[in-house]
């Protein structure tokens, strides 16, 4: 039928894995905003949720690294990480080979994507699903953008992927939701973990919320690495969602939580024609 | 420097219980599979997370290896700081340290 929902959210593993170490006065409002996003998602009765994520060597490694990959299976599993480490139990997540194949076919008209008939979700997808669809009952279409192993795909190609995703979503009978997960500035899994560039984050979110394509695509990876860390490369997922939704964004929550290693973000975007 | 091979080892051990078992029972034999420098080989065999970090390993791989070795999150962060203190700045990759060795941004 069409795209019916769009949003972005943080996916850092500390959000669930280091929950007990966080200040509850910061943690609980963020969790509540995450759950509210889940309620908004279910209110539009989606048939499937496309999760544009940036994984961390769960399925893809530098021996054969796709810039873009899309899952094409009837079920997935996750988390690949130690469930105790992540704080999320291992489970099976429904997919749809048929729907994925239709979407991939249309996306391939303009963007070359790899497909994967097996996919083990890591925290990039599991943390969002833990809050948004806690009973794992919604069909998921996983999409990955390589944000870990340079050379990374240019930002304008992440935009092109979002445009292609929109065209594909509008061409199937199902009601499709899309979220981008990751970012914003962070220095994950380094001694800097907890460093957050709030001013940079807020500027990025402001550009995203007004769906300013030119401003969003103007970041160079060198600047992003300097100002927003290697975690900042994940803005690609947010850019794809802006290209797919085309509307104005609404930042529902933004709070730096250092022990989670990220400025914890929840935002939705209007779907424009 | 064979950072790809070092990271391939981390990728393999993080996901494969058989590699984890071999690491415990026959690390020298296990590492013959990888084209590593002597320094990389010794760092892996010793479980020297700090040196592996300095050699340029991606933190998304290294943090799971550290957990396999039994390091808590604060101990993992400290091991990397200690590695930089002992061996100098990170030599490759995109996970360089930008804070000071005595700095704990998130309090751990």
Characterize the structure shown.
The complex is a heterodimer of chains A (273) and B (108). Chain A is 37% helix and 24% strand. With 273 residues, chain A is an alpha/beta fold. Chain A has a single domain (2-174, 181-247), classed as LigB-like (Protocatechuate 4,5-dioxygenase, Chain B). Chain B is mainly α. Chain B has a single domain, classed as Protocatechuate 4,5-dioxygenase, Chain A. In chain B, helix 1 packs across helix 6 (59-68). Chains A and B meet through loops of A and helix 1, helix 6 and helix 7 of B.
CATH topology of chain A: Protocatechuate 4,5-dioxygenase, Chain B
**Number of structurally distinct domains of chain B:** 1
Number of strands of chain B: 0
Q: What is the distance, rounded to the nearest whole angstrom, between the alpha carbons of the first and last residues of chain B?
A: 31 Å
- Average pLDDT taken over every residue of chain B: 96
Helix-strand makeup class of chain B: mainly alpha
What would you call the shape of chain B?
A: globular
Radius of gyration over C-alpha positions of chain B, nearest whole angstrom: 13 Å
**So, CATH architecture of chain B?**
Orthogonal Bundle
What percentage of amino acids of chain B are in beta strands? under 5%
Provide the structure class of chain A: alpha/beta
Which residues of chain A sit in consecutive blocks of at least 5 with pLDDT less than 50?
Answer: none
The tally of helices of chain B reads 7
The CATH superfamily of chain B is identified as Dioxygenase LigAB, LigA subunit
Range of strand content of chain A:
15-25%
Largest interface: A-B, 30 and 32 residues
Helical content class of chain B: 55-70%
Can you say what the CATH homologous superfamily of chain A is? LigB-like
How many structural domains in the coordinates of chain A? Answer: 1
Instruction: Note the total helix count of chain A.
Output: 10
Low-confidence stretches of chain B: none
